[in-house]
Each structure stands twice: as C-alpha cells, then as structure tokens.
Specification:
alpha/beta; TIM Barrel; 42% helix; 12% strand
C-alpha cells in the first residue's frame, strides 16, 4: 500500500504531493514499482503535530487527489480519514476502501457510511478519550491493550452489519502516546510510546492469532525509529525496511509504506529466501 499525502502538514515531507503533476507522477511510479493499492491522505493525523484542518479543506484536497490518481494509474485507492463526511465524498468518487485510524470510534457516522458502501475498511486500534475520559485510564500500551481496542471496533462493525470479510485491522503504530496535539491518538501511561510500538511489531503473531482479519501495518519512517536511532525522517529507510520485513514474517498481510520500490524489493527478496 503506497502512501500519497496531499496534506502539507504531514510528518514526512517527501511523501507530500500537492500539485496535479506530482500526484500523477507518484501514482504512476507506485504502480510501476509494484504497489497493489494507493492510500491517499488529505489531513495528517500525526499525534505530535498541529494538523487539524476543516472538513471542507480535507474534502477539497481528497477530491483532487482521487481524480488525478484515477486518471493516471489503474491501482485501487483507499482513503485515509477519520471523518465520515470525507469518506462519503470519496465513496461517491469511486474509491475502493476506507482507512480509519480511529477504528470507527472518532466519528459516530463512519460505521454507517462504511456499512452502506460495502467497501473494505481498515480499522485502527484507538481509544476515544474525548467521549469517555475514564476509558483512557484502562488503556495499556501492551499488546493486550491493542487487542482490546480492536475488539471494540469489531463490535461496532458487527452492530452496523459491516461484513467481517471486509475488515482489515491495524495496530496503529505511532498513535499510542502519553500526550499529543489532536484527538486521533490513544493515551497510554504504562510504557514509553516507542517501547509500545516495538512490542507490537515483535508480538504481532499474537494479533494474528487473536483475529481472523488480515493485518495492515504502517511502520514506514515512523517516529519510534527516529527515537531509537536519533534519525530524521529522511534517514529512516533502512530501519523501516527491516521493520516491514519483520512485520510480514510475523503475519502482516498489508504493508502501508512511503517507499514502494524499496519495500517491494525487500519483501520479494525476503519471500524468495524464506
């Protein structure tokens, strides 16, 4: 899953494509280099950045990106948004999947929109502390906390009659923090955030055995790598590739990445050798 961000506020600046030419060129390149799907985001949800924009602005950015991608490659498109209004407009334009890092919890209308669309959905592990402040106190950074939150989202999906075969789960690497600047992350107190991310990757097999749903994971150039090695985002390629290989060996079925060419080569080589 190749990432195209049309949000200038995104954490990895090389992933930002805001002009028609850049979006088109990137989409064609991702298809050529072996991506299976393009995930387009129009608003960054990185917890440590000031990223909130209006729904109207997110929709405008998203519409432009979808139209350009569709005109320049044949890959299916997923839309990365926690907002149902954005998802609704994207569905009208014929996208192929919804990617909600908040696991159908942030926006009360998201589950209904997804159910009506009958599209596949990626649900992230997430605790909506804004609606239940007591709930955040019970969230642990251990793998058990991630499993608990994903089970809650699956119950929401079941209540809205979303087909379980259409659900992909995501443990939300980078979105468990002690503090942040937006409502799209989960508060944890018992572990350093970067330790939590490493634990999830190393114990991903427990997620695989707890759910029948495929696992999508995004570790590409994430901040836990920067924290461990004191690396800037543009310096995190090699640790990203190693992490992605480990994720696949531990059961991940979808790898969401900024580095399509390098990731495809690394995963194909891993498969050939293994």
């Amino acid at each position: 899953m190749g990432i195209i961000n049309v949000s200038p506020e995104s954490f990895y600046k090389d992933s930002i494509k805001t002009t028609t030419e850049d979006i088109a060129k990137t989409a064609r390149s991702m298809q050529y280099n072996g991506a299976n799907i393009i995930d387009v985001g129009a608003m960054s949800t990185a917890p440590y950045l000031e990223t909130i924009i209006s729904v109207k602005e997110e929709i405008l950015r998203m519409k432009q990106a979808i139209k350009v991608i569709k005109n320049n490659c044949d890959l299916p498109i997923s839309v990365d948004t926690p907002r149902s209004a954005v998802a609704r407009e994207a569905i009208k334009l014929g996208v192929d999947a919804i990617n909600d890092i908040t696991g159908l919890k942030y926006d009360e209308d998201m589950a209904n929109i997804v159910a009506e669309s009958k599209l596949p959905v990626v649900i992230g592990a997430y605790s909506n502390r804004s609606k239940d402040n007591s709930h955040q106190l019970s969230v642990t950074g251990r793998i058990s906390g991630t499993i608990k939150l994903l089970k809650e989202s699956l119950l929401i999906a079941k209540r809205f009659e979303i087909d379980n075969d259409n659900i992909i789960i995501d443990p939300s690497i980078g979105f468990f923090r002690t503090e942040g600047k937006n409502p799209f992350f989960t508060v944890i107190k018992d572990l350093p955030w970067y330790v939590r991310d490493i634990e999830v990757i190393s114990r991903l097999k427990e997620l695989r055995t707890s759910f029948s749903n495929p696992i999508c994971i995004s570790v590409s150039r994430k901040s836990f790598i920067g924290r461990l090695f004191n690396l800037k985002t543009e310096e995190r390629l090699i640790p990203s590739l190693v992490s992605e290989i480990i994720c696949v060996l531990n059961g991940a079925k979808v790898i969401r990445t900024h580095n399509v060419r390098e990731t495809v080569q690394a995963l194909v080589m891993s498969e050939l050798i293994n």
